[in-house]
Amino acid sequence: MGFVVVVCCALLAGARRPPRDELPHPTRWALGGRGFGTATTCLLLGGTIYTSYTYIAVPGLMFGTGGLALYSLVYTMLLSPLILILLPRLRDIGEKHGLITAADYVRLRHGSHPLALATALTGILATMPYLGLQVVGMAAVLRSIGLAPDGFAGCTVLVVLFLAFALVTQPGGLRACARLSLLKAVLIGAAVAVLLVLTVTRLGTPGHIFELAGGRGPAMGRSFGVPTQHFTTYATLALGSALAQLMYPQVLLVAMASRSKETLRAATTFLPAWSMTLGLWAFFGIAALAAGVTTSPGHGELAVPTLVRELAPDWLAGLLFGALAVAGLLPAVVMAMSTAMLFVRNVYVEYLNPTATPKHEVRVARGPALVIMAGAIVFALLMKPQDAINLHLLGGVWILQILPAVAVSLFTRWFHRRALFLGWALGMVSGTVLLGLRGFSTVVDIGVGPVHAPVYVALIALALNLAVAALLTPLLDALGVPRGTDGTAGGAGFERRGSKYAFVVE
Fold this sequence. Notes:
The protein is mainly α. It is built from 21 helices and four strands. The strands form two sheets. It has a two-stranded antiparallel sheet. The N and C termini lie far apart (60 Å).
């Protein structure tokens, strides 16, 4: 019953319609008119990055693997400085030129339609598994309340939840999601406080909990520290995950929606508060180990839901599971909206209907948003959870390959557009092959003589991407291959002038 109450409140919060006299426009529907203040931007940005699967998977990793799972906390802490460096600059260019997606920026910055299309398709392909993971997280929650997602009742509830939220937020667009983000923040904060009280009351002080878990962990092959031999794994996973997170279309969409670059910077300074809540959820994974919780092999994500069932009465457990459900529904809606805008603006309008009006763009985007949501549900239900996770890992490798064309180009005009395209292609192929050949292991052992270091696959693919772009740029310039027109104005970067490159500030 508590689960139903929380979900219904979230539906009411998301049911926001635009003013009747307001004409549909992509900037209003997808970006809220670029008018979000500091509080709204912080809530929406944090609510989009920190998903329900994050709150389930991180403690599940702590429960199942130990201290290596803490890389996720490090990577979320790295997000704030990286956002401060990259996204305010991108946001200002976007407002000045009416841009909404990363592919819009790439087309304008590099004057390359193929590179823009590659950016758009990469964003769509990489986000679909990420959206599917939200369904997997919701399935874990439903399984904990007795609704097996592979049964008819559980499957029906899962489909109805995601499609209902997608339909309810359709009219208001990102502004409806902004209201939902406030409810999510309140629910997650309350859930953390309640679960912390229950844990300390039933299991003892945090010190005692760590002592209990420390006694059981080694016997189960778990260590809460990071082994020295895994240091490069830990560091490269944290850095690569942080860089990849910034390239996902839902994060860029929320950044573009802020009122100004100062607003975005101010909102970013509060993001560590979201990381603190994630740290507490990671602690609940240790508490599950201390409480003697057991899960079937490969299903560590059920550790915290099982702990909730053991510690809380049914009515309270329902409320806590409802909070986790809302935590996944918000980012799922924003993901669907952002990928729909990529499709409409950079595929449909670009190649199929160049004369589409802004009103028509919004009307068309609503359809793909629902289709993308439905596709993610089918994708998650037909595949095993581990297969969905594997595809998400592949999506992380893919999305990082657009970083040179998007993020690096914010600071330099040196790279040739065709070199960037070929670098992107090599990064996509090499990352996919490396991940597939190693059975979807996220790290590859790099060795030079006696020195060996496991490194995150996505960073290896990115290094190859950048190396090819750097090697081919002077070659293409020497051959006289046109660079394309840079449509952005203002900012600073290295620009080719005759046979030399000069640092230009406009």
